[in-house]
Amino acid sequence: MHRAFRTLVIVTSAYIAAQILSDIASLRIVTIAGLSMDAGTIIYPFTFTLRDLVHKVAGKRVARLLIILAAGINLAMALLFWLVSNLPPAQDVGAQTAFGTVLAPVWRIVIASIVAEVLSELTDTEVYSAWVKRVGERWQWGRVVSSNAVSVPLDSLLFTTLAFGGVYTWGVVFSIFWANVVIKAVVTVVSIPWIYLVRPEPVPGLVD
């Protein structure tokens, strides 16, 4: 198996897994450094850098396709959880209400999450591509910093506005927004070295 193709399989799998895990973790609200946020914020920011790795080995078209596929998988997961939550339980086992209580989707949050993910990660793709065209192979850390600097606040703004606008006061929404941006910025810094784990060896026939 070509080394670059093996790398692509690993980073795409990690991307999809991070997307799914972050959506499930988002069902719990936690407090970090005095800031309240959904627990998915802990892992979701890594998806931006993982997308950068996919872009590096497979190009813009594959990165775009992966973003759309991930959104479809997340929507399918929410639909599955909704279906399972509404199917009648086996009477000899019991009501089993815990599953629906925990995993039944809140559709406004699901839609807000998917819209924010798609638009912010597609934006991340364009910024990354523009950086590479302008700078080339130098300063690879700049790809992560520049693309995440745009996509992270965009994602946070879209999600908090669509999910909580009109539900909470705008002061609360603004507070949630900044909490998300701060945590995602920290994760971005932590993930910068990842770009150097992938060799500049594109998958043959894929990179644009």
Q: How are the secondary structure elements laid out?
A:
Layout: H1 3-25, E1 29-32, E2 35-38, H2 46-58, H3 60-86, H4 97-103, H5 107-135, H6 141-164, H7 170-191
Antiparallel strand pairs: 1-2
Helix pairs in contact: 1-2, 1-3, 2-3, 2-5, 3-4, 3-5, 5-6, 6-7
Describe the structure concisely.
With 208 residues, the chain is mainly alpha-helical. It has helices at residues 3-25, 46-58, 60-86, 97-103, 107-135, 141-164, 170-191, and strands at 29-32, 35-38.
Textual characterization of the structure:
With 208 residues, this protein is mainly alpha-helical. The chain has a single domain, classed as Arp2/3 complex 21 kDa subunit ARPC3. Helices cover 70% and strands 4% of the residues. It has 7 helices and 2 strands, in the order H-E-E-H-H-H-H-H-H. The chain has helices at residues 3-25, 46-58, 60-86, 97-103, 107-135, 141-164, 170-191, and strands spanning 29-32, 35-38. A two-stranded antiparallel sheet has the order 1-2. Strand 1 (29-32) and strand 2 form a beta hairpin. Helix 2 packs across helix 5 (107-135), helix 3 (60-86) runs antiparallel to helix 5 (107-135) and helix 6 (141-164) packs antiparallel against helix 7. The protein is globular, with a radius of gyration of 18 Å. The model has no long low-confidence stretch (mean pLDDT 84).
Identify the notable features of this structure and list them briefly.
single chain; 208 residues; mainly alpha; Arp2/3 complex 21 kDa subunit ARPC3; two-stranded antiparallel ribbon; 2 strands
